[in-house]
């Protein structure tokens, strides 16, 4: 297995595998060495605007490659990292490296409009997150409006008022915020209305529901989410887009952005740079304009 095949393909421990206690313990121990042994790598998955299909950003997805175990899915090791208090150090590493890379691309004439970094619930509840983000932006020289943080509904529902304050201060600095996996958590519509965010990410499960069978209501939740998001003043991105039928449906319902295997898988740095360069030469990289003018 080569690294470049590892977008989401081969995983020794896949996300839907129920780990036995001893496997979990083994992985936890291996995870302790992952940072210092340089087993982490950032992958980048393009995000495109609709209907133009210009590249307007990329989501950063963490990959753990263990020399003996192979690729281990973040769906497995992120929860482990949270449970064992390692998420702080790992999250900091991701943020620093993602921002440094995006800043480097700017200087290299590969201006990616936006980079999306996942922030787990635990990280989001850490009092120092705001200070960390500010420091990383200052140190890497990445303009704040090129950074988007992806937070999950569950991170917000725990203490909505505190979450709203933190989100507000992040956005006052120009940092964008997306609510990831929307529809999988349990935030009430009232909570959602009051959240200072920029974007809703329709969870891939609701995109998967979209089929081209006539009369099949599979896209109902995706369509409703687009309408809801727009009515609340948010931009809407769909993740996990794999087919032309899904793309057509999302476009017809006014979805603002898409991300998924139909366009590109998450790619290691060099492959993503080649992708970006080709898209720049073709004139299909978006400009850095706010998508939802206030
Ligand atoms: P997520 O943030 O919702 O990321 C989207 C996931 O969907 C990624 O899985 C991505 O590779 C996958 N994906 C993208 N397009 C498609 C598609 O068309 N079809 C299908 N079937 N899947 C697609 P991945 O990379 O395995 O990451 C899983 C989860 O792990 C992420 O879900 C996120 O919650 C977490 N994660 C990944 N990297 C980080 C990180 O740096 N920090 C934190 N805190 N969490 C991370
Ligand atoms: Mg995400
Ligand atoms: Mg997601
Ligand atoms: Mg997800």
From TrEMBL:
Coiled coil: none annotated. One of its GO terms (biological process) is phosphorelay signal transduction system. Keywords: Phosphoprotein. The keyword Phosphoprotein applies. Residues 24-280 form the EAL domain. GO terms for molecular function: catalytic activity. The keyword Phosphoprotein applies. This is Response regulator receiver modulated diguanylate cyclase/phosphodiesterase with PAS/PAC sensor(S). It comes from Albidiferax ferrireducens (strain ATCC BAA-621 / DSM 15236 / T118). The lineage of its organism: Bacteria, Pseudomonadati, Pseudomonadota, Betaproteobacteria, Burkholderiales.
């Amino acid at each position: 297995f080569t690294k470049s095949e590892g977008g989401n393909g081969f995983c020794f421990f896949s996300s839907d595998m129920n780990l036995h206690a001893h496997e979990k313990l083994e992985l936890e121990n291996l995870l302790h060495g992952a940072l210092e042994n340089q087993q982490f790598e950032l992958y980048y998955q393009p995000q495109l605007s609709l209907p133009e299909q210009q590249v307007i950003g990329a989501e950063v997805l963490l990959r753990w490659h263990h020399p003996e175990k192979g690729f281990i899915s973040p769906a497995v090791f992120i929860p482990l990292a949270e449970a064992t208090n390692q998420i702080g150090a790992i999250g900091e590493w991701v943020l620093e490296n993602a921002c440094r890379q995006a800043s480097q691309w700017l200087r290299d004439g590969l201006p990616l409009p936006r980079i999306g970094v996942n922030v787990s619930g635990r990280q989001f509840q850490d009092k120092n997150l705001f200070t960390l983000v500010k420091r990383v932006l200052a140190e890497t020289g990445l303009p704040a409006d090129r950074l988007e943080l992806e937070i999950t509904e569950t991170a917000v529902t725990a203490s909505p008022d505190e979450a709203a304050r933190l989100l507000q201060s992040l956005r006052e600095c120009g940092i964008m915020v997306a609510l990831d996996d929307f529809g999988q958590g349990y935030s009430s519509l009232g909570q959602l209305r009051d959240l200072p965010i920029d974007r809703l990410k329709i969870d891939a499960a609701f995109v998967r529901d979209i089929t081209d069978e006539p009369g099949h209501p599979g896209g109902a939740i995706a369509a409703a989410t687009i309408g809801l998001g727009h009515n609340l003043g948010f931009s809407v991105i769909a993740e996990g887009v794999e087919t032309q039928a899904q793309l057509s449906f999302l476009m017809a319902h006014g979805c603002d952005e898409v991300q998924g295997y139909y366009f590109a898988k998450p790619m290691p740095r060099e492959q993503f740079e080649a992708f970006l360069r080709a898209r720049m030469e073709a004139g299909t990289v978006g400009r850095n304009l706010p998508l939802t003018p206030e």
